[in-house]
Amino acid sequence: MTRTLSPAAPVSPARFGHVQSSQAEKAEKEDKAENLRISEIFFSLQGETSRAGLPTVFVRLTGCPLRCGYCDTEYAFYGGKRLSIAAILAEVGNYAARYVTVTGGEPLAQKECLTLLKELCDTGYSVSLETSGALDVSLVDARVSKILDIKTPGSGEAKKNRWSNLHRLTQHDEVKFVLCDEIDYRWAVEAIREHQLDLICPILFSPVHGRLDPAALAAWVLRDHLPVRVQIQLHKILWGEGPGR
């Protein structure tokens, strides 16, 4: 018995176009998932933390959900360019440095930052992350040194502190308070005592450049015998303010 096959239904141009469009959209999403918006990548001396003075490559990501009153990197809120993680690693590698700092803006605002941090560690760099503390740090690679910035009342963003992040810190990490005045100082002292921060990791006190006299801050710390490191932004002393420093 001979079977007669029915001719296949023709694919309409409209449907074919829809398939192509869906594939293009999928490819675009996958491409973006492997990219980050970068404000700048530059080589300088680390100006803060226990790594101050060390030659470091900085990868500054674009974007930040916070608006601290003393922010000195507002230019990183917008703009930048999209780079693949491979391109970022290649540019970082051009400087032949041991230390890399991923900063912002707020780097964790881009979820692909977690992949970048892992890739940097896998490549063999000593990596630090400068983060506001308003976003969850639980998924950050354990090899990364987290520099967690606890926002004081003077910043205008203290309500956004995610205190649960403190449970994710180890002696490998650091907590930083940027202080505008004595009110901020007293608030930070209370926070240290309440959360026993000195038992968790090193603590940094940093005066807002041009607003709080570093000598006054040093005097308060000595008077109160605080277990903290007073730091001044080395890069601003050397070169002043501006991108690429």
Walk me through what this model shows.
- The structure is a single chain.
- This protein has 245 residues and is of the alpha/beta class.
- The chain has a single domain (34-239), classed as TIM Barrel (Alpha-Beta Barrel), CATH 3.20.20.70.
- Helix content is 29%, strand content 21%.
- It is built from 6 helices and 9 strands; from the N terminus they run H-E-E-E-H-E-H-E-E-E-H-E-H-E-H.
- The protein has a 9-stranded mixed beta sheet.
- Helix 5 links the parallel strand 8 (203-207) and strand 9.
- It is globular.
- Residues 1-6 have low confidence and may be disordered.
For this entry, give a set of tags.
245 residues; alpha/beta; TIM Barrel; 6 helices; 29% helix; globular; disordered N terminus
CATH architecture: Alpha-Beta Barrel
The termini sit apart by 84 Å
CATH H-level superfamily title: Aldolase class I
Named CATH topology: TIM Barrel
- Multimeric status of the protein: single chain
Low-confidence segments: 1-6
Provide the CATH top-level class: Alpha Beta
Helix content: 25-40%
* Average pLDDT figure: 89
Strand order of the largest sheet: 3-1-2-4-5-6-7-8-9
**Rg over alpha carbons:** 23 Å
